[in-house]
Design goal:
The chain is α/β, with parallel strands linked by helices. Helix content is 48%, strand content 8%. The chain has a five-stranded parallel β-sheet with strand order 2-1-5-6-7, with helices on both faces. A two-stranded antiparallel sheet has the order 3-4. Strand 5, helix 7 and strand 6 form a beta-alpha-beta unit. The longest helix has 60 residues.
């Protein structure tokens, strides 16, 4: 019995000759007669490399921006959380103080003020950039209210009609006028030939508003003589205009850089004390316009109300004076 033997594989396959299309001895193409690969132009290669670099650079910038935004967002979130915690702590403190203050009913008024102050502090903390409160002064007045009144004064009061706040017929004032001069000297020859007292007697005003005293004040002022002059003026007006309500306005201060260096605020304060005492003695109303409006923290005339000479009023100061005088006269 013979044994089956598979055919010899080595003998099964035969080498197949590849014919070179270029002929014998030709080297064109590969050993399998494939076409040789063409090289890319140098310009194309360089362009592709540059494009890849640009894309990578753009990606890097986008990544950096995204990373920074994420970092700042995280920081902002942290700050917001801190502010929220601070606000909650303040509100908790306020609520605690409110609950404690309600325990004592007998001191409810004081507790209410404490809660109000705490609320104001809370608001100021919440608005860290809020500006400091600014004092507001009213400048609203009714010109018609003064139509039957008379203003007696020096050059400062001439601004009442100069700025058209008060009619000329309601002002008896001139440069250099003093309490003595108002009794004897004419204030405007072209308008009226007599003195301020003469004009008041003829006019019989409802109210007489006086502001005199700046002229003649200095370190050498005789305050007994000053008081006698003012007292004489007030007594004559009370006699000649018995139905009139008389109001005396304080002598205004001077600024720190006033041109009128012979006048000091110390002297002015002394003069006003003399006037105030006379008004009390004679039953005349005294209005301290200095302490209520004109003076700053150091006792000088506030720059926003004073002319450059440091003594006279700016135009915007007159409505403030008239507003306060009107309120004072209406309240009496």
């Amino acid at each position: 019995m013979s044994v089956y033997r598979p055919p010899n594989k080595k003998n099964t396959y035969h080498k197949i000759g590849i014919k070179n299309s270029a002929g014998s001895g030709g080297k064109q193409g590969s050993k399998y007669n494939m076409p040789k690969k063409q090289k890319l132009p140098t310009a194309v290669v360089v362009t592709n490399i540059l494009m890849i670099c640009v894309i990578l650079a753009v990606c890097g910038v986008v990544f950096a921006i995204s990373f920074n935004n994420a970092k700042y967002d995280k920081a902002d979130a942290s700050k917001a959380a801190e502010r929220s915690k601070a606000a909650e702590a303040l509100m908790s403190t306020t609520s605690s103080e409110n609950s404690e203050s309600s325990k004592d009913e007998s001191s409810s008024a004081v507790s209410s003020e404490t809660v109000s102050e705490t609320s104001q502090v809370t608001a100021s903390v919440a608005e860290s950039s809020a500006a400091a409160p600014v004092e507001t002064v009213s400048d609203e007045f009714d010109k018609e209210f003064f139509k039957d009144d008379l203003f007696i004064g020096d050059s400062i009061f001439t601004g009442l009609y100069g700025y058209s706040y008060i009619d000329r017929a309601n002002v008896a004032a001139t440069m250099g006028y003093t309490p003595y001069g108002a009794q004897e000297l004419p204030f405007d020859d072209t308008f009226y030939s007599g003195s301020a007292v003469d004009y008041a007697k003829e006019k019989q005003p409802k109210h007489i508003i006086i502001m005199l005293g700046s002229n003649g004040l200095s370190d050498n002022t005789d305050f007994d003589d000053f008081s006698n002059g003012y007292k004489g003026l007030l007594n004559r007006l009370k006699t000649e205009c018995s139905e009139a309500k008389i109001l005396v306005v304080s002598v205004p201060p001077v600024t720190a850089n006033t041109e009128y260096t012979q006048i000091t605020n110390t002297v002015i304060d002394t003069a006003n004390e003399k006037i105030k005492s006379l008004c009390s003695e004679l039953g005349v109303t005294y209005y301290d316009f200095n302490d209520s409006v004109l003076k700053d923290a150091n006792g000088y005339f506030k720059e926003e109300y004073a002319e450059l000479d440091g003594l006279h009023f700016k135009g915007a100061t007159y409505p403030i004076l008239l507003s306060n005088v009107e309120k004072l006269l209406k309240s009496e």
